[in-house]
Amino acid sequence: MKLNYFTYCFEKFEDKSQFRMEINDFIKSSTSNEALPFAKQNRHSGENLYLLPVVNSFYLFVQTKDREIIKRIEKKDDEIKAYEIQSLLSKDESLGFASYVYFHPTLRVFGFASRVLSPKFTAFQMYINNLLVMLRIQDISFVVHPLKTEITKNQAMTLPFIGTTRFLVRKDSSLGESFKEFFLGSTNPNDLEVIESFEIIIKPASRKSLTDTIKKTLVSIEDDGIKGIILRGKQNLEDNVKDFYIHSAGALYDEIKSTEESKVFDEIKEKIENNVELKDKVEEYEQEVPEQMDDRIAYLYNPANWASDRVCLFPLSQ
Asked: What percent of the chain has pLDDT over 70?
């Protein structure tokens, strides 16, 4: 399971300008009992969306239309546990699916981990924007920004292990021309206008590595003909295998290996708090987007201000 990293901002509809502000307390308060009427209304693609607090900035993000799951979540009971809901979903996937969300304790970034059928980060973005609509905060939207990463050839040469490697070859390069003639028997532009590029995948034999082979290729290959290179490798031999990108940025992520629910949260916390690239990537983003306070959102940092006598709920259109 991949743990992808995102930073975030708000965007004004009027002029598309963006601004940053702290939302951890807003998120936490949105999961309180006072905010339960809003939780009951939050839907996407005909299914209910719920953000269930686990512990210390950890949340289970649930998408379901099963009435029994919905009843268990929506009961006003301080004893309801995210683990209980995840246990039910794990036993019967027809009931719904869940993803994991963890907000970094000091950086404005969150990790989002989801399995194949679990709700994606776009649904989480929709969850926040639904809250804004129900709060009648309709002049801004919540926007998530996937953090990306890439390495240089020189950095790739230091990797102790390289496995499956993909080369994206430009069709108009000399290398691309050779591939077109060899595989397609033609270099006529009219015959090949539907082709964007070529992708070459080199896979190692079982229990073998391509480390030396790929490093030799990186030294000899011409950069002009390559759109991007994706290496499956390790930064340290004891690490999990992950993707490294050359010439084209790819998603910044970590691999979560645990399958036991009790261990998944611990591994997510460990990965996000020890990822050495996160701080620099967040700082790069924050240099581009100014900070600004929106008092309407700050007002809702306090769970008590979600109560019906302090804020009005405007139902989502069906």
From this structure: 91
